[in-house]
Here is the input.
Amino acid sequence: MSKQTPRKQTAAKQAAAKQATAKQATGGKNPGTRPGTGSAGAGGGRIPAPAPEADGAAAKEFTRRRLLGTVGAAGAAGLVVGGAGGAAGVSAAQDDAPKSLSTLGSTRVPFRTAGAEHQAGITTPLQAKGHLVAFDLAPGSDRKAAAALLRRWSRTAEELMAGRAPDADTGVALDAGPSSLTVTFGFGHSFFGRTGLTKRRPLELDPLPDFSADALDPKSSNGDLWIQIGADDALVAFHALRALQKDAAGRARLRWQMNGFNRTPGATAHPMTTRNLMGQIDGTNNPKPSDQDFDERIFVGRDADQAWMRGGSYAVVRRIRMLLDDWEKRSRHDQERVIGRRKDNGAPLTGGSEGTPMRLDANGPDGLPVIPANAHARIAAPESNQGAAMLRRPFSYHDGFREDGAPDAGLLFICWQADPLRAFTQVQRKLDRGDALSPFLRHEASGLFAVPPAAEPGDYVGRPLLEG
Here is the structure.
């Protein structure tokens, strides 16, 4: 027998090791379809599972748009095979499930990207789980203390979004990948007075006006600092929330916190706009990054008075309770007329599909508008508000049941715009005057936050404001 070269010996050992590992994972049998499962490193850090190696893309990161299609197709196939019964159906389900989970967990959203202006969590596709949390600076805190907190928060967020464990980690998400985690930071109106920066407070951050439908709880509104957390895994999202709360100890105190959710990516047969708790497709007619005027509408321009906000955006946050018992008593026909769109596919009542433009001038045989004059979709449309538009990126919530048995549930409404006065305030004023949906909603908390651009590499969010 000829001697093997060191390189061949190494290759042979690696092949033998892989075969032994595969047999161990399948109970000593030759493996069939190779599942892609995640693993934890020796040091306890989280390592995203590699994608299948058939196409040589072990380190490839999937976009969530591609992921939705892939997972949806796998789920549909599993249902068809499983419906036939027998061992083959069980085997297919077992093979598909780990792939879907590991691919979902490995999706990473960068905390900062060279050349990217905006923080993650604004144009990032909706995640399955979200936390909104506001803090007030601790008494006696100054600008220097605020800078130290933002520096620490930025470092922690960057580690978590990369799927790495920060210092003194709790281990809550030890087995998971980054799962599309995003952490977004903003400043409230009161932050500037507490840090001696009132001259650098943007006019766009002036308090929102009162609306007749408001029943706001001051303790659950506003705040010096605001954080939005989103992820496709509940433990990953909670892990981030807990880590950032620990970082704030002694520097800032929790003011309020809200928990939300959306449909999990891959839960539908194909990618589609999410639904809210009223069963309506929610997010139709949202501005798209491909729109020519998207940046102008959503992000602060280069000519802004406050240079530190150029490339940033303003977030309006509203906790809107839905009166679901009242809503669900209405027939589907009545619900569709309240909204102005079909419930099954989101199409306007004037016909077509979800993406078909509404024909606001269309009348029925009775001579009345097909889309009622007070329909929510009509009143909120840019065509009805001098082109005003905002990027809606909400989470649903359910906080148990009230004393009368009604669900305490609804929408954590979050919208993004370059100027809240010309977007949210203008649209909400019109809705406040005659929206058919208003009787089924209660606005119970509110906040407005200036969200600066993403941190430069090696920097922290808000440094141009705090050290400029």
